[in-house]
Amino acid sequence: MRGLTSSVVSLLGALALSSPAAAEVSILVNKTTQRMTVSVDGQERYSWPVSTGMADYSTPVGAFTPSRLAKQHYSREWDNAPMPHSIFFTDAGHAIHGSHAIGRLGTPASHGCVRLAPKNASLLFQLIQAEGLEKTRIEITGIDPIGIAVGSGYGAGRDFGRLTSFDPLTVGIMSGGDRARPRAESRRIP
User: Fold this and answer.
1) Are 69 and 62 in contact (CB under 8 A)?
2) Is residue 120 included in any domain, yes or no?
3) C-alpha torsion 70→75→80→81, nearest 10
4) CA 47 → CA 51, 75, 100, 137, distances in Å?
5) Confidence at residue 77, expressed as pLDDT on a 0 to 100 scale
6) What order of strands is seen across the sheet that includes strand 95-98?
7) In the prediction, which pLDDT does 7 show?
8) What is the strand order of the sheet 25-30 is part of?
9) Burial class of 5 by CB neighbour count within 10 A (0 to 12, 13 to 18, 19+)
10) CATH, residue 30
């Protein structure tokens, strides 16, 4: 009996000294709404505006586990652009990171990464660092918004050439030309 009691006491002592289980961190990025929601153990903790990939630089959709953290990273691909508090989630180099272009948050503006305000990126980085990469899940959903133009006026600054064989703002019926369109000849079928 004495041996059983000491075994139980040893087991309880080991359990009391062990660290608590890490929390499950869930990061949901919605490209359609340009928002990120962060939950810990199923309880929403943060909701922030983000910038995902702009035209021709889509942010990948799917479920990911972050592969590494970098407190201070500079993009070798994009002119050493600063990427503070980077959380890398693809082998191609996609990351969630801070950005000083906070005026663009809420709209697609990146080259495929998920941008956050610097303070929010720091909070997220610290949370993942504390809970662990293996306890973090990133899910990216939604579609790339279309029809968002940089500049003023509808379609300003857009290149529609990849959508059609011509640019409808400079050629064709949307160009504002005053040429009359040729009418189709009517033929009588005998």
Assistant:
1) no
2) yes
3) -80
4) 13, 26, 18, 16
5) 76
6) 68-75, 81-88, 95-98, 114-116
7) 53
8) 43-49, 35-40, 25-30, 136-141, 62-64
9) exposed
10) 2.40.440.10
What element of type H or E holds 95? Answer: strand 95-98
Task: Indicate the number of domains in the chain.
Answer: 1
User: Does residue 167 fall inside a structural domain?
Assistant: no
Question: Residue 16: inside a domain, yes or no?
Answer: no
Q: Given this model, what pLDDT does residue 2 score?
A: 58
Chain-centre distance for alpha carbon 87: 11
Domain of 99, in residue numbers: 25-141
**What does the block give as tokens for 172?**
């064709």
Q: Which residues pair with 49 in a beta bridge?
A: 35
Q: How far apart are CA 22 and CA 133, in angstroms?
A: 10
Structure tokens at 187: 């033929």
pTM: 0.67
| pLDDT profile of the chain (190 residues), mean per 10 | 54 48 90 97 98 93 97 80 93 95 95 96 98 97 68 41 46 49 51
| Structural domain contains residue 14 | no
Beta-carbon contacts of 77 under 8 Å, excluding residues fewer than 6 positions away, are 93, 111
